Amino acid sequence: MTALAWTESLRLHQPQMDATHEEFVDLLAQVRTALVDGEQARALAAYERLVEHTAEHFAQEDRWMLATGFAPGNCHTRQHESVLRVMREGVRVLREHGDWSALGEIVRELGQWFPQHARMMDAGLAVHMAEVGFDPATGHVAGTLPEAALTHCGSAGCR
């Protein structure tokens, strides 16, 4: 299982997003470490914390997207839904079938998925938020929102 570590290359220069992302990386590392150490109870507890964190992490970004002119079913939000569905399914499979290999696979895949998601979709969202003058702390938009709801992910590569 390759470890994902927080590095400057993951920083998007949007303080709230960066803090949430750094916490995601740390929680994922806690799950990985517990799995490598063979500590199943600790791994499950850490994974459940990761799932809770990720649900709020994605909900926060989804709220920001809605507040800044994204359509409710945009591709960024749909990716959040898909990833969270897989993460929750991992808990179910583990609890019902005791399949620890599934959890290891999910942790491995999240470690590969997250940097790409952050550098494309989340970076696009951070740029968009800055362009419209959105303050995530207050929810205030100082600039002009797009005329038509955005259905893409926010990244230039996704338009």
Describe this structure in words.
A two-stranded antiparallel ribbon has the order 1-2. Helix 2 (40-67) runs antiparallel to helix 3 (75-97) and helix 3 (75-97) packs antiparallel against helix 4 (100-131). It has a single domain, classed as Four Helix Bundle (Hemerythrin (Met), subunit A) (Up-down Bundle), CATH 1.20.120.50. The longest helix is centred in the C-terminal third of the chain and has 32 residues, at 100-131. It has four helices and two strands, in the order ααααββ. With 159 residues, it is mainly α. Helix content is 66%, strand content 3%. It has helices at 15-36, 40-67, 75-97, 100-131, and strands at 134-135, 140-141. The model has no long low-confidence stretch (mean pLDDT 93). Belongs to the hemerythrin family. Keywords: Iron, Metal-binding. One of its GO terms (molecular function) is metal ion binding. This is Hemerythrin domain-containing protein. InterPro entries: Hemerythrin, Hemerythrin-like, Hemerythrin-like_sf, Hemerythrin_metal-bd.
Question: What is the correct CATH architecture?
Answer: Up-down Bundle
Q: What is the radius of gyration computed over CA atoms, rounded to a whole number of angstroms?
A: 17 Å
Taken as a percent bin, the fraction of beta residues is under 5%
User: Major beta sheet, specifics?
Assistant: 2 strands, antiparallel
